């Protein structure tokens, strides 16, 4: 479970993020690239250097992603995110690669976790309430990642997940033409277990949260911090995996890990026109349990709005 | 010679599938349990000598108690036609000897990875006092598990429990019986097989690692006897002379393993692991972990004594004690190991012949191995390298891809021996199958959530917006419903626009009908009043009555003219709308029809009014003859009773068009209205909220009352959005909100 966190953090602003939804029939398409790199893996708490495993000159990811969002009702939108990724480890002869076996460091590429979401606005700040509150469900299809899920270069853990989330946020004016916005989102997902690894269903259920604050002094640019948090409370430690053949030889070994990761970074959004925005995000790991301790993740993308019916005005 | 064929039963419960190995003293078959369906390897003695039988039994008892992922497990000991059989874990793969024969040597990480498993297994056995004493690459089977080679140590056939050493020394391991394999045997083992301890295994481990890294045995000589001489003398080439990039600590560890003096070697596997994996703490930790988990608490050293009863292992069916086992002679080949045959180039000296002359040349059989051959077009590029001992002693079998890659292969069939016997091998383990139920449940969950959201939305927005028209509640949904017989608009937008225009036209027509009715009633009232007045005041009022009648007629005519003018103006506006909105043909047709209806209504009203006027005149004429008296009362509702139109009166006010873009704010947030239409045609357009992440566009329709300057818009998506306001020149302002969400203020100016 090394990459899904990246997927969660590279969702673009203005397209499916936050509690706000598009109007009925309105739609956006985000096209972006993303990359990440990490060099160390926490074997348990990650609090000390002795507990950190050098994965051998780094693991790098490059990917492209398309996210389509459309408002299907006045207060409901659906979204589909399709990523393609390539992951490689930079020194396949290193000891961790040998220790982990199963071609652990062999490069992978292909379709990532495909995600579908539906979001409904329950409270709308445009009509009186102080905040906008939304809730929804998500379905994640990870079948394409199943063949490589035993590798440290995995793009997912091969499971299909179903989850629910709730998000609350507010926006307001800033100056003459500026704005600010903030939201806090949290959710959980059930992951269909691929198997049982030494008494632990893998992958286990997860909870997650993310928050973002954007400040736009003018109409052109908005910047702000964001954080993402992921926690899978059940499972083994990396240390257990490395010393127990029953775990390390199981293809669901990464899915059987008990993990936590806190990623912090920032986002910048440039409004190129009324219908086009460019977003850039950068984040780094702040805390990790059985997860990479030093992930640098970046994404860059363009979001097009209303491109299908621009002629309608 | 014991002969078994495919389909034969062993011990009445194991069905033979294929012969997978054959040595001088035993054969190994792949079998399947007839009831459980599980696959096993069965090692069965082909020469039922009591000493061999005892050793086989001892092997089984020891291995049956060892639990370690890198040890070949023995699950049962059975008999077949009086021959002892070990039922073992079936290892689907090759062995290290074959791997080295194919690849020559292994790269350092791969070698250390494999060796860690071997070392862990041997250490676990040592921890409970079990020695192997014949460690060699041929006894290290390699199972491919999910693409990775997992070593499994087999053939503890000459191992013994340390506590039983003294007793067994006089038995199968007595002086003069050489147990082990030259090149891997420790010097003290060559000198006295019964006087060795676990450090002999450490010597063998060193020799194995040396060979894994260099591809050569450390003491390799032309003859086994010379090999043993070199072993005793400690003559071998330093590993770094053959593998220059071998790390110093690895080279030092190997050299220390191969020390001739027992005291100079590592004193245990843990010490060796510490030295060898000094810079690989993960592998070291794994070895320790495996050792800790390898042995169940109930493990005990085998109680093997001369008095221990044994199964009928001897040829005559009697019980043979270990101590009675005579040395076996003449068996130069190796015993089968695990589920795969021991290669021919490593003669097993467990079956004696201490004399060097009886030792077979170690490597010449490899030279006779047939060339690798492909399995055929359907083999997927997999090549089979086989070397079978033509004397029936042993064979080796390896599989690899044609390109020499170490990629996982899935053998589907192998050929053993020169006679072409073919047997199917089980496929490598597949990843666990997924149950479709959670997936189906998840899909249903999401569909349910989406459906619930849709239902919830409909619950919130099911009531049609209500507009107040002339003080009465009119359900807008009814007003915009298409009339019978009208063509359905081609699109939703067209339908909305047509419905809006139709609603506006229908509202105007209804207003005209109401006006006409009111006028008719007023005229009738006036006529009646006039008749009564005329009846009371007779001829004195005639002039006034005629004037009033004339004025009433003129006022009616004037109103009819105004209505006609309004109708003409409406037609003109509709024509303009037709020019501006070419796509709204259906709406235009509806408006035209409604205008025609309005004209007809107006004409009908005028006709009715004329009829009323004539009736009044007739009544008045009738009343002329009545006696005069009283005053003339002007018709109600007409404050101005001038006979001629007032030139100062303002002309009828044309309804302004609200089409265009209006910008402003709604509850402090940016707001944009894009409208089209007028008071006559109705309004359609969009309301846009845009601020940062909020980008909401709502399509609306509504009406504009030119008399009151009031505008009212509703969301055509049925979400209960209401916008009402007042137009003031180029600006408008008002309130908005959703049903139940309260009312907020908005304002906008025309751009």
Give your account of this protein's structure:
Chain A is mainly β. Chain A has a single domain (4-312), classed as monomeric porin ompg (Porin). Chain A is 7% helix and 55% strand. Chain A is built from four helices and 15 strands. Chain A has helices at 4-9, 95-100, 238-243, 245-248; strands at 27-42, 52-73, 76-89, 108-111, 114-123, 132-141, 160-174, 178-191, 195-197, 200-202, 206-216, 221-232, 259-271, 276-289, 296-305. Chain A has a twelve-stranded antiparallel β-barrel with strand order 1-2-3-5-6-7-8-11-12-13-14-15. Chain B is of the alpha+beta class. In chain B, the strands form six sheets. In chain B, strands 17-18-19-20-21-22-23-24 form an eight-stranded antiparallel beta barrel. In chain B, strands 1-2-3-4-6-5 form a six-stranded antiparallel beta sheet, covered by helices on one side. In chain B, strand 21 (710-715) and strand 22 (721-728) form a beta hairpin. In chain B, helix 3 (108-127) packs parallel to helix 11 and helix 6 (198-214) crosses helix 9. Chain B starts with 8 loop residues before the first strand and ends with a strand.
